[in-house]
Amino acid sequence: MQESNLRVFSEEMITLNTPANTFLAMGVLIQELDTRKYHARRHFTARFSEFASTETQQAFATLFANNKPHRKHP
Fold first, then answer.
1. Residues near 26 by beta carbon (within 8 Å), at least 6 away in sequence
2. What tens digit of pLDDT does each residue of 17-31 get?
3. How many Cα atoms within 13 Å fall on the side-chain side of residue 13?
4. Domains of the chain: which residue ranges?
5. Three-class SS of residue 1?
6. What is the spatial distance between Cα 40 and Cα 19, in angstroms, rounded to a whole number?
7. Which of 48, 47, 38 is nearest to 3 (CA)?
8. How does pLDDT run across 36-64, given as a tens digit for each residue?
9. Which of 13, 24, 35, 36 could, after both became Cys, cross-link 18 (CB 3.0–4.6 A)?
10. Is the four-CA dihedral 24, 30, 35, 38 of positive or negative sign?
């Protein structure tokens, strides 16, 4: 989303005689966001597998087994 917004802003800025350095900086930002997105997707499977493990699921079950919402009575 941020990457897309930066691209839209850069297109709008063309008509405002924006300095070239601004576009270069925006290009660097877009590249950095793209790199972060790549790494996040690359590591997602391992992180999610850890989260979805039987051990983690049992921990959640234990943690929330006795926790029922408390209602306040007037």
1. 6, 9, 10
2. 888 898 888 889 889
3. 15
4. 2-64
5. coil
6. 32
7. 38
8. 999 999 899 888 888 888 998 898 888 88
9. 13
10. negative
